[in-house]
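@channel anyone free to eyeball this complex?
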Amino acid sequence: MTPKDEIHVPINSDSDIVTARQQGRTMALEAGFGDTDLTVISTAISEVARNIVEHALSGEIILRIEHNGSKAGLVITARDDGPGIPDIALAMQDGYSTGKGLGLGLPGTKRLMDEFDIVSDPEIGTTVIMKKWRN
Amino acid sequence: MRVPILKQGKYLIASIQSALSDYELLQLRDDLAAQVGKYRTRGVIVDVTVLDVMDSFAVRTLRAIAQIARMRGAETIIVGIQPEVAFAMVQLGLTLGQVETALDLEEGLALLDDRTRQDGNRDAER
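replying in thread with the prediction:
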């Protein structure tokens, strides 16, 4: 794996949200994703990066290209060491929000992606791993 | 970067030039709220043509801009939402609510002209 295949973007402030989604777009473009997917991927990165800024203050977004046979996909990992999500099932319901969002963040983001997993622990923080496969 | 706001006749046109951080979006909201009063504006256009992402924060801020302007007597039209952006917004579950949209700046100006002409007729009847 060349270093270019994985990018770490530290998330500490709202301007890092823009950096993360632009890096994600660039990586997806190089991997051959189409225009609609590029926007969908950027939007999903924006939502999970904002979750970090609002709930955990700092964390990182890791972007990686994954190959599965002839398929290529973008794997986005959003990791923070914040207070964790006490009730993930509740947080994944449309309309539920503790922050400043519209309550669409996590369930909406899941709809944008092909795969979406979330693990959260008050001791460790929250990690979201999501994938988009190239059509 | 601060979004430039052009005064054109009785309208204000905020033409977004690049991707905006949350802070810059809030700055645009506050600048427009102040300028609607300062210039006695009847209509506001926010041109989002260059935005390649409209996430939940951007949509919520645009809705706030329109609501604030309405309370100050001005209509707001969002113009230039790209097809891919519209697609992602719908999948994410975002709507602009009561905020009016138009395809581009030209359509947006025509829509504002319609709105304010109606107001003018109503004024004349009094």
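from a first look: The interface with chain B takes residues 14-15, 17-18, 21-22, 25, 35-36, 38-40, 42-43, 46-47, 50, 94, 100-102, 104-105, 107-109, 111-112 of chain A (CB under 8 Å).
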